[in-house]
Amino acid sequence: MRPLTSKSAALARLFGAIAGLFWLVLLSSAAHAEAAYSFDVTPGRLPKTVAPVNYTIELMPDVKELTVAGNEVIDIEVREPTAKLVLNAVSMTLSEAIVDDKAHPEISLDAASETATLTLREPLAAGAHRLRIIFAAKINSFARGLYYADYPTAHGTRRMISSHLEPSDARRIFPCWDEPAFKATFTLTVTVPANFLAVGNMPIMREEAVSASQRRVSFAPTPKMSSYLFVFTTGELERITANAGGVTVGVVTTSGKSEQGRFALESAVKLLAFYNDYFGIPYPLPKLDLIAVPGGFGGAMENWGGITFFESRLLFDPTTSADSARRGIFSILAHEMAHQWFGDLVTMGWWDNLWLNEGFASWMQERAAEHFYPQWKTWLNGYGQKQLAMALDARRTSHPIQQRVNDESEAMTAFDGITYNKGQAFIRMLENYLGENAFRDGLRRYMAAHAFGNATTADLWQALQDATGKPVASIAASFTEQDGVPLVVAETRCAGKSQRLTLQQERFAIVPARSGGGNNEAGLPPRSWQLPVRLGVVGGADAETILLNGTAELAAGACAAPIKVNLGDIGYYRVDYGPNDRAALVKALPAMTPEDRLNVLADSWALVQAGRTDAPSYLALIGKIAPNDQRAVWDQVIGVLGHLNRLSRDRSERAGLQAYVRATLRPVFDRLGWDGASAPDDDDALLRASLIRTLGDFGDDDIIAEAKRRFDRFRQDPNSLSPALRDPVMHVVGTSADKPTYEALLSLARKATATNERLRYYFAVASARDPVLARDTLALTLADELPNTIVGGVISTVASTGEQPELAWDFVQKHYDALLAKLGPSFRDAFIANLMTNFNDGAHAAELLQFAPAQSTSGGKVMTARAVETIAIAADLKSRALPAVDAWIKQQTSARP
Question: Could you tell me if residue 593 is left (phi over 0), alpha (psi between -120 and 50 degrees) or otherwise beta?
Answer without folding.
Answer: beta
